[in-house]
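Data card: per-record layout.
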Amino acid sequence: MIKVGKKIIPWREGMSVADLLNDLKDPYAYPVVKVNGKLVSRIDFEKTLIPDNSEVYLIPMVAGG
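The structure for this 65-residue chain is written out next.
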């Protein structure tokens, strides 16, 4: 299982950050996520595997003036 905020997502072998975001069907293009405390940039989403029992934080970019 993977904890994403308050959601629990089923884990599967070989699951990458890109797979997780696809499964969530969240339309936001996150530039970075945090997996078990480690920041992962979008360029590494496909190759970064998520271990079972992980905690993932989705970090949106915020802009303002």
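Known properties of this structure: The radius of gyration is 11 Å. The chain has one helix and five strands.

See the next section for split statistics.
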